[in-house]
Amino acid sequence: MDRKTILVWFRNDLRIHDNEILLRAVERSQTIVPVYCFDPRYFVDTDLGTQKTGVLRAAFLRENVAALQRDLQALGGDLIITQGCPEEILPQIAEEYKVNEVYHHREVAYEETKISALVEAALWKMQINLRHFIGHTLYHKEDLPFPIKDIPDAFATFRKKTERESSIRPELGRPNTVRIPEGMDTGRLPSLSELGFSKTAIEYANNLRLQGGEQVALQHMNSFLYGDQDTLGYSRLSPYIAVGALSPNTFYHAVRDAEHTTLDKKRVEQIILKLLWRDYYRFMFKKHGNQFFQAGGMTGKPPASIADDQKQFDSWKTGKTGHPIVDGSMKELNETGYITHHQRAIVAAYLIYQLKVNWLKGAAWFEEKLLDYGPASNYGSWAHAAGVGSSAKDNKPTDIKKLSARFYPKEALVFGS
Ligand SMILES: Cc1cc2nc3c(=O)[nH]c(=O)nc-3n(C[C@H](O)[C@H](O)[C@H](O)COP(=O)(O)OP(=O)(O)OC[C@H]3O[C@@H](n4cnc5c(N)ncnc54)[C@H](O)[C@@H]3O)c2cc1C
C-alpha cells in the first residue's frame, strides 16, 4: 500500500457514496485527513443588503457536516471541522499531518474557483499538489463531445449532442474503511451564533423541517421513487443535491433502475431532463463565468427596471405585494427555504416584469433563502427569467397567467385578464 497521507477537502460533496475524492484518497494512501471548513466569506452580507447564507441554510449545512462526520466515524475515520479560510487552514493541517497531496472537487462559480486558486497557491509553496476531480455533474467534462469553450449555448443543442455522443459513468463504490492519523484533532462544529447569526435568527432556524445527511437523502430518494409520489412530480431532493449529501449520479442511476418498476419512460425522461439543466448551468458558468452576475447577462440588454426599486423589492421579499400566489410563495420560501420550480418561475417573473425590480436583487434573495442554493442553477435560472440567459430560445418571460392558471386555478384570477 502507498504510504501517502491525503487530505480530503470536503465542500459541496458531503457524502460517502459515489464520492471520487474520498474513494480515490482511501485507495491511494495509508491514511487520509478529511476536512470541512466553515468559510467566513459565506456568512457575510452582500452589497445588495442580503445575506450570502441565510440561517436556515446554515442550519441545514451544519446538519449535513455533522452527519458526514458520523458516517466517517462509522467507517473508522473522522472529520476535522474548522472555521476559517481554507487557504490558511488547509496548509496548517497539511503541515501538522505531513500530508502529501490534497484532493477536492472542482467548482465552477467565480468565488468558489477563486478560493480553490488561493488554496492551490498556498499549497504549492509547500510543494503539495491540489488535485482536482469532477464530481458535481452527470457528465464529466472530459466525456463531453466538445471542449468547454465550444459547448453550445442553446440548451436543446447541448442536450441533443451530449445525450447522443456522450455517456454517464457508472456509480462509484463506497470505501469499506477509512484510516486517519492516530489522535487526529477533529475540531468542533461551530454554533449558529459562532457563524454570526443573531438570537432572533437562530430561533427562526427552528423552522427547518429537513433533516440533513446522506442517509436521510437516500431514504428520501427511495421514497420518492418507490413510495407515494408527489402528484406534481417534484422530488424535493435539491437541497441534498446542492450540499452533495446526494450524488446526482446516484439519483440518475436510481431513476433509470426505477424505470423498470415504478416510473414510466416519460417520467424518467422528465427527471433526467431536469438533471441535465443542472449540468448545463454548471457548464455555462465554466464557459461564461462572471457574466451571469451582471444585469445584462449574456445579451448585454437587461430588462427595463425602475431606478428606485427598494420599496417594490421589500414588498416582494416579505410577501406583501397583494397578489396571493406571489405572497404565499414568498412566505413559504422565507419559512421553509424551498418552493417548487413553478413557484420560483412565477415569483421571478413577477419581480422582473410586474414590479420592474433589478433581477440581481431577486437572485440575491434566493441566494440567502434557498436551501438548495447553487450559484450556477440560481443565477443561470434567474438570467433566463430576465431574458438575458445563455440559451437564447429559453430567454422568454414566463407566462405568469398561464402558469398560475395551471397550478392555482382560483387565485390565478387576481392576475387579471
Ligand atoms: C428563479 C429560479 C432560481 C432557481 N434556483 C435554484 C438553485 O439555486 N438551486 C437549484 O438546485 N435549483 C434552482 N432552480 C431550479 C429548480 O427550480 C430547482 O432545482 C427545483 O425546483 C428543485 O426542486 P426538486 O428537487 O423537487 O426538483 P425536481 O423537479 O425533482 O428535479 C430533480 C433535480 O434536478 C435539478 N433541477 C430541477 N430543475 C432544475 C432546473 N430548472 N435547473 C437546474 N437544476 C434543476 C435539481 O437538482 C433537482 O433536485 C431555480 C429555478 C428558478 C426558476
Gyration radius, in Å: 22 Å
Termini separation (Å)?
Answer: 72 Å
Total count of strands? 5
Beta content comes to 5-15%
Biggest sheet record: 5 strands, parallel
Put simply, the count of helices is: 16
The CATH first-level class of the domain at 1-136 comes to Alpha Beta
- Sum up the overall morphology in one term: globular
Describe this structure in words.
With 417 residues, this protein is an alpha/beta fold. Among the domains are: 136 residues, HUPs (Rossmann fold, 3-Layer(aba) Sandwich); 124 residues, Orthogonal Bundle (DNA Cyclobutane Dipyrimidine Photolyase, subunit A, domain 3), CATH 1.10.579.10. 46% of the residues lie in helices and 7% in strands. The chain contains 16 helices and five strands. Strands 3-2-1-4-5 form a five-stranded parallel β-sheet, with helices on both faces. Helix 3 runs parallel beside helix 4, helix 9 packs antiparallel against helix 10 and helix 10 packs across helix 15. The chain starts with a strand and ends in a 10-residue tail after the last helix. Flavin-adenine dinucleotide binds next to helix 8, helix 10, helix 13 and helix 15.
Write the layout of secondary structure elements.
Blueprint: E1 5-10, H1 20-28, E2 31-38, H2 55-74, E3 80-83, H3 86-96, E4 101-105, H4 110-125, E5 129-133, H5 155-165, H6 199-204, H7 214-226, H8 238-243, H9 248-258, H10 265-288, H11 310-317, H12 324-336, H13 341-354, H14 359-369, H15 375-385, H16 400-407
Parallel strand pairs: 1-2, 1-4, 2-3, 4-5
Helix pairs in contact: 3-4, 7-9, 9-10, 10-15, 12-13, 13-16, 14-15
Bound molecules: flavin-adenine dinucleotide (FAD).
Flavin-adenine dinucleotide (FAD) binds at residues 234-238, 241-242, 271, 274-275, 277-278, 281, 340-341, 344-345, 348, 366, 370, 372-374, 377-378, 381-382, 385.
